[in-house]
Amino acid sequence: MSALPSARAMPRQPGHVPGEAGVWLFIAGDLVLFSLLFATFLSYRADAPEVFAAGRAHLDQTLGLVNTLLLLTSSWFVATGVRAARRRASRTAVACFAFALACGLGFGTVKVLEYGAKFEAGLTPETSDFFMFYFAYTGFHMIHVVIGMGVLLAMIAYLRGRPPQAVNLQHIESGASFWHLVDVLWIVLFALLYLLV
Amino acid sequence: MRALLLHRLSAIWLLLVLATVASWEIGHGLGISDHRLASVAIVVVAMIKVRFVALDFMELRDAPLAFRVAANLWTAGIAAGLSAMILTA
């Protein structure tokens, strides 16, 4: 019975699925849903290019850039944390996941500041189709970030709560895969909402 | 710690940061004057970034073939589909 944890301590093998099947089903479903959201955005944009150009001009691209760099960096921390957990270096893994969590908090803080500035300037979801999409899509994504931060906290608690040899890496990989999904979705949202010219 | 830092993942992170800054510059009119082509370039760079996150950070590079095929098909499909929508808008 004790064979499972030590077997899971082996280096990643070719053909290895990172995480549980259920997480991958969720990721696949989410990607299909967001694919439709991306296409819907471009479809509306094609019908009213001037409205979308005006909306984009009101966004702070630098804040979008900062948030993208924060999530990319958080993903690096999470991927590195998974490598550390695989080496049974739980303390390093916990530190990596904590830094990733800090990046997530930074992302959320920037988003709150951004929303605040928009509302202060009188820009709301009712301002235009662009802002309807902006608030809906970034809001929906922010829900993913909050859930992801909860997952990171759970991963930290899980690692701290048991000896390194007793860690089931599949749990860690599942949480990590979800966090990377949050990063992937933002990469596309940043391009579509903030950058398209 | 050294082994964790000096790893392919760190090079991928640097590549992703550089690609992000490059697409930010394209979005600010650097390099490509035609706005549709600039938008296509931004989408393509974004999907290349997604592919690296999926293959290297999500570790799909060593996953079973079906996972790699799905990841590549999705990134290529989204890049092609969104680019087509931008070009025909």
UniProtKB/TrEMBL annotation, chain A:
| Main subcellular location | membrane
Q: Which residues form the Heme-copper oxidase subunit III family profile domain?
A: 22-197
Keyword field: Membrane, Transmembrane, Transmembrane helix
Membrane spanning segments where?
21-44, 64-82, 94-113, 133-158, 178-196
Please list the GO biological process terms of this entry.
Answer: aerobic electron transport chain
The family assignment reads: Belongs to the cytochrome c oxidase subunit 3 family.
Could you tell me one molecular function GO term of this UniProt entry?
A: cytochrome-c oxidase activity
Its protein name is Cytochrome C oxidase subunit III
Q: How does it sit in the membrane?
A: Multi-pass membrane protein
- Organism, by scientific name, is Zavarzinia aquatilis
- Can you supply one Gene Ontology CC term for this chain's record? plasma membrane
